[in-house]
Write a structure and sequence with these properties.
The complex is a heterodimer.
Chain A: H1 4-9, H2 11-22, H3 28-37, H4 44-56, E1 60-65, E2 68-73, H5 79-88
Chain B: E1 5-10, H1 13-23, E2 27-34, E3 37-43, E4 52-57, H2 63-72, E5 78-81, H3 85-94, E6 99-106, E7 109-115, E8 121-127
Parallel strand pairs in B: 1-4, 5-8
Antiparallel strand pairs in B: 2-3, 3-4, 6-7, 7-8
Classes of the chains: A alpha+beta, B alpha/beta.
Chain lengths: 97, 130
């Protein structure tokens, strides 16, 4: 839980989380291509390093399909962050805007 | 000087010939026995007089660690041009081809990546007219 906050503090890592939220289970190459396509090009080494941080925080895990490694986002790992934010800044009650 | 041949390393030449011709649609070109292996090339269906693709045995000990590392990270070994990536994606999926990347558009270029079943990932790319 403590590791999740620094993991998502970096905008590059949030972009990786967003890319996996849009389409889960991507290869390292596909993530690099998608970042490039969205104008946020990063070296493969940098992407791999950021994925390592997300993995250590429990947000991303890897699976092997055939001979290819896929990166899987587990959004439930963000539950602790949501709970903390909601405790400090509770969402408006229904009917109120 | 000109490029006449380029190659992909394959784990089984016969299996590769069947996949590249029977599934992808390449045309058999040269098939010359060379002892244990063959000088085995195929030609592109659109442009059979162009560059030949050599289906080269991967039995040198340095090849597998190299190609396996590329496959693990999802990196294609070669890229071929097609008129319509989305149409090829549909056609090849119907033939049972496994894709590791669905169509991605990057400006005018659209790509997909498939598994050639012989130890490589292959990219197909199209460039939108315009």
């Amino acid at each position: 839980m403590e590791e999740v906050f620094p993991a998502i503090a970096d905008p590059a890592r949030r972009r990786l989380v967003e890319a996996l939220a849009e389409r889960n289970d991507q290869t390292l190459f596909e993530l690099c291509v998608r970042l490039l396509g969205s104008g946020h090009s990063m070296s493969r080494q940098a992407v791999a390093k950021h994925l390592g941080v997300l993995k250590a925080a429990g947000l991303v895990s890897t699976t092997v399909q055939g001979r290819t490694t896929l990166h899987h986002l587990d959004p439930t790992a963000l539950g602790g962050v949501r709970d903390w934010v909601e405790r400090i800044a509770p969402p408006a009650e229904e009917g109120q805007q | 000087m000109r490029i006449t041949t380029t190659s992909v390393f394959v784990d089984d030449q016969q299996k590769a010939l069947e996949f590249y011709t029977g599934v992808l649609g390449f045309l058999p070109k040269n098939d010359i026995p060379l002892g244990e292996h063959r000088w085995l090339t195929v030609a592109a269906p659109d442009g059979p007089e162009g560059v030949e693709l050599l289906l080269e045995p991967n039995d040198h000990p340095a090849v597998r660690p190299f190609t396996e590392a590329l496959v693990a990270d999802g990196i294609p070994f070669a890229s071929f041009g097609v008129d319509d990536v989305a149409a090829e994606y549909e056609r090849l999926q119907a033939l049972g081809v496994s894709f590791v990347q669905p169509p991605i558009e990057m400006g005018p270029v659209t790509t997909v990546i498939l598994d050639d079943t012989c130890g490589n990932l292959i990219q197909l790319a199209s460039i939108a007219a315009g």
